[in-house]
């Protein structure tokens, strides 16, 4: 089954395009994991692993996709990378789709190694394969081709950085005529025609910041059948307002990510009346789901 079909099927099952990012920062973990994590890198990795073992079953009841951010695991060293592998494997066991946020992109042979690490086919399959991977395409087509090849081999998805959510993105991404981001979007659309499934959707998607809703209609017109990853919801200031162009009449077309707004729910004043970090996470997820479009089956109205 194509990644696009798996993605939309999972969104329909949960009824929401909400996605939660895993960005483990020792100083922001809830107790008792925070105290454990602050004693050293090995303890931080152990606390992170144990935290995700309790967090992921909560998320699996509510959302279809998680997005681990590899950097936050990698900074804990080899045990942190092992904690990332455990989170990926455990999430998949729970029925969650895993979109690995690693933003890789390099010369051809290195790109191939990155792609095989995260999507499958690496040495003895040392790392559990994710369903999709974020890719930095700005080194050019030859740097992207290995990701396309591995994604095709493993029925995986790719999300190419097109217009990112950070304030400084416009310096390069708006440069030129047409703007560089538009050139990248056109390339993603062209590559994506080889990844269309029977639904008409592609398994090649694009990252478009939820902090830039005024640009969504433009990029949707350039990428009519590409899944959109919309980061920046919640803590970075993105809201559900203006996101409609990303979705079709059934609520399909995009996934919306929140990381800190969910992971730091135990620090949010509006949830102070709740007793446990688990209750606060569930409340934060419910709040996000309620704000976003409802995903319906093809025979229903969104």
Order of helices and strands: HEHHEHHEHEHEHHEHEEHH
Percentage of residues in helical conformation:
40-55%
Radius of gyration: 18 Å
Mean pLDDT: 93
User: Can you say what the CATH homologous superfamily is?
Assistant: Aldolase class I
CATH topology: TIM Barrel
Structural class: alpha/beta
Number of domains: 1
The best one-word shape is: globular
pLDDT < 50 runs, ≥5 residues: none
CATH architecture: Alpha-Beta Barrel
Number of helices: 12
Largest sheet report = 8 strands, parallel, barrel
**So what's the CATH class?**
Alpha Beta
Write a compact overview of the structure shown:
By secondary structure, this protein is α/β, with parallel strands linked by helices.
Furnish the topology, listing elements before pairings.
Elements: H1 3-14, E1 18-22, H2 33-37, H3 41-60, E2 65-68, H4 70-74, H5 78-93, E3 97-104, H6 108-119, E4 132-135, H7 141-154, E5 157-163, H8 170-173, H9 180-192, E6 204-208, H10 216-222, E7 228-230, E8 254-258, H11 260-263, H12 277-291
Parallel strand pairs: 1-2, 1-8, 2-3, 3-4, 4-5, 5-6, 6-7, 7-8
In words, what does this structure look like?
By secondary structure, the chain is α/β, with parallel strands linked by helices. It has a single domain (3-291), classed as Aldolase class I (TIM Barrel), CATH 3.20.20. It is built from 12 helices and 8 strands. Strands 1-2-3-4-5-6-7-8 form an 8-stranded parallel β-barrel, surrounded by 7 helices. Helix 7 links the parallel strand 4 (132-135) and strand 5. It is globular, with a radius of gyration of 18 Å. The relative contact order is 0.14.
């Amino acid at each position: 089954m194509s990644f696009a079909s798996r993605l939309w099927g999972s969104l329909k099952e949960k009824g929401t395009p909400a996605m939660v990012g895993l960005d483990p920062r020792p100083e922001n973990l809830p107790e008792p994991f925070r105290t454990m994590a602050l004693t050293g890198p090995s303890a931080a990795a152990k606390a992170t692993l144990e935290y995700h073992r309790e967090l992921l079953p909560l998320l699996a009841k509510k959302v279809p996709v998680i997005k681990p951010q590899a950097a936050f695991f990698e900074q804990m060293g080899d045990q942190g990378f092992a904690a990332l592998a455990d989170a990926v494997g455990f999430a998949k066991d729970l029925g969650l789709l895993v979109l690995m946020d690693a933003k890789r992109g390099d010369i051809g042979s290195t790109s191939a190694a990155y792609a095989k690490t995260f999507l499958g086919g690496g040495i003895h399959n040392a790392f559990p394969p994710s369903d999709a991977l974020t890719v930095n395409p700005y080194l050019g087509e030859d740097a992207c081709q290995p990701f396309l090849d591995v994604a095709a081999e493993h029925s995986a998805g790719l999300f190419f950085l097109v217009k990112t959510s950070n304030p400084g993105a416009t310096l390069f991404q708006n440069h030129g005529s047409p703007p560089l981001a538009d050139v990248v979007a056109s390339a993603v659309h062209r590559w994506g025609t080889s990844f269309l499934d029977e639904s008409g959707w592609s398994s090649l998607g694009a990252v478009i910041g939820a902090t830039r809703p005024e640009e969504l209609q433009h990029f949707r017109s350039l990428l009519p059948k590409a899944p959109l990853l919309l980061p920046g919801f919640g803590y970075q200031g993105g809201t559900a307002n203006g996101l409609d162009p990303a979705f079709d009449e059934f609520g399909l077309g995009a996934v919306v990510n929140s990381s800190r707004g969910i992971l730091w729910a135990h620090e949010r004043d509006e949830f102070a009346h709740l007793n446990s970090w688990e209750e606060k996470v569930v409340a934060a997820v419910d709040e996000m789901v309620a704000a976003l479009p409802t995903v319906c089956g093809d025979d229903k109205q969104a």
